[in-house]
Structure formats: C-alpha cells, structure tokens
C-alpha cells in the first residue's frame, strides 16, 4: 500500500459477510494500522476489529444517526491518521455509502472505498451454488422487497422476477409472503427452488435452509429465522445434482479462446 496521505481521509472498508477471514487483505492491513474504527455493530462482528492496534479507538455505530456518524468520522480524520468506517458485506450495497460520503466531501476529507464480499456471494458459496449457469441464467439481480424505502419505477419484484434470472433478495426475510405472491404472479412455479441463508459465513451460527416457493416461509418459521438472512431464488439452485448439466464453453475441448486452442475434433474413425 502507498504511503500515508497527508490529507485527512476516511476509508470505507467492506468487512465481508461475517467470517473475519473474509475481510480482504487490503481491508485487514488498513485495520492493522487504524487509529479510529467506526463499525456497523448490528451485523459486523467485533471480531473484524481483532487486528486493530491497541491505541485504536473502536466504536459501534448501532445507536448513532447518520449525522452523528459523519460528525465522528470528520472529527477523527486528521492528516496522517487512518480512519475506517467498517461496513457489512460490500459498502456499495444497501450501505448508505453516498449519504456518508457527501458530508465528508463537503468537509474537504478524502474518501476511499475498499470493496467487500457481499452476503449474496457468501450465501451461495456456503451452499455450494452458482449464481449463473450456462443456458440456464446468465444474469443476477440484487434487489430487495419494498419496505419503508420505496422501490423506483420499473423495479417492482414482479417486474424483476419476470426475467427468471437469479434473484438475491436483501433485507426481505420478514416479507416472504410478498415474495411468494409476486414471484407466482411473475410465472414462477410453486416448486421453484429457494435458498435462505441466515448469518452466512458466521462461525458456528450459519444456517442454510432449502425449500420451494411454496414451503420456504414455513421452513423459515420453523427454523426461527427472521433477520440477517439472504434469500436466493434461482433456476440454478440444486444444479450440483443435475445429471444433464450444460457445461461452460470456456473449458470445452472444442472451443478456442485467448489462452487455449481447440483440440482438433475427433473423426469417427479415431473415436
Ligand atoms: N452491504 C451488505 C448488505 C447490507 S443490507 C452486503 O453486501 O451483504 C443487510 C442485509 O444483508 C440483511 O438484511 C441480509 O439480507 C443481508 N446480509 C448481510 N449479512 C448477511 C449474512 N452474513 N448472511 C445472510 N444475509 C446477510
């Protein structure tokens, strides 16, 4: 990493989904030389701050308003100091990033963002699932069900679900009845597979629930999952057990690309 900036600066660091080992190396190096860390307590485990040096001021922002958060960051940001806002997953997804950056810009403080592993990726990883599959879906939609934050025009769940691509639903575990209604209206079958992961990657606390559009709500109720969960609805789910999986062209012996020439197709005689 380059030398310390002489300008006051705040780093927005993605802490990843919960497992401290999923913080990026860059994020961990920053934490290891931090002077002040403000972390989003409701989801980011304090463990993410385990590399902070002894002198580092570590504060949980869970009871703070946006203004208190930005005031704290502005106050700590001094030339030569490493000040970190540690956020769950990736800071650019439902992270109020720009709302925090604007007051820092106005105060003349430099900002840098270190991306993080989002819970959408962590949820699929722990279930050994793929977000995309050849000839099944090549598209992932990261979205949420409308709550107190209204959805912009054209982004209702029904419209987005009509693509039948992979849908990763954040902040929506208490809204499963709406998901069921909207996806059915968009043409998804009752037996469409659904994956719910609670606390993906959290050591000892992760729960993986597999179900269908019809029964996932009941299964989550039984498992008492009503927060911190990623919902994935996708035609790719369960593909690990498909006997007729379409393979990717990238590794196909008959397919040439930048790094590998296709093998000459075998003639019937050679075969
Ligand atoms: N920036 C975060 C998302 C913050 S919004 C990210 O990139 O993951 C908070 C929502 O993210 C939660 O309601 C839940 O839907 C999801 N979430 C965050 N961490 C999670 C985890 N470890 N397991 C499952 N879902 C998680």
Describe it for me?
The chain is α/β, with parallel strands linked by helices and about 270 residues long. It folds into 2 domains: about 10-115, Tetrapyrrole methylase, N-terminal domain (Cobalt-precorrin-4 Transmethylase, domain 1, 3-Layer(aba) Sandwich), CATH 3.40.1010.10; about 120-240, Methyltransferase, Cobalt-precorrin-4 Transmethylase, Domain 2. The chain has 7 helices and 10 strands. The strands form 2 sheets. It has a 5-stranded parallel β-sheet, sandwiched between helices. Helix 5 links the parallel strand 6 and strand 7. The longest helix has 11 residues, at about 65-75. The N and C termini lie far apart (about 55 Å). The chain binds S-adenosyl-L-homocysteine. S-adenosyl-L-homocysteine binds near residues 18, 43 and 171. The site of S-adenosyl-L-homocysteine (SAH) has 23 residues, from helix 4 and strand 10.
Kindly state the mean pLDDT as a whole number? 92
Number of strands: 10
The 3D shape can be described as: globular
Based on the coordinates given, report the CATH architecture of the largest domain.
2-Layer Sandwich
Largest sheet: 5 strands, parallel
Number of domains: 2
- State the fourth-level CATH superfamily of the largest domain: Tetrapyrrole methylase, C-terminal domain
| N- to C-terminal distance | 54 Å
**Would you tell me which CATH topology of the largest domain applies?**
Methyltransferase, Cobalt-precorrin-4 Transmethylase, Domain 2
Rg from Cα: 22 Å
Note the run of SSEs as H and E. Answer: EHEEHEHEHEHEHEEHE
* CATH top level assignment of the largest domain: Alpha Beta
What is the helix content?
Answer: 10-25%
Low-confidence stretches: none
Bound heterogens, unique: S-adenosyl-L-homocysteine
Helical/strand content category: alpha/beta
Strand coverage percent:
15-25%
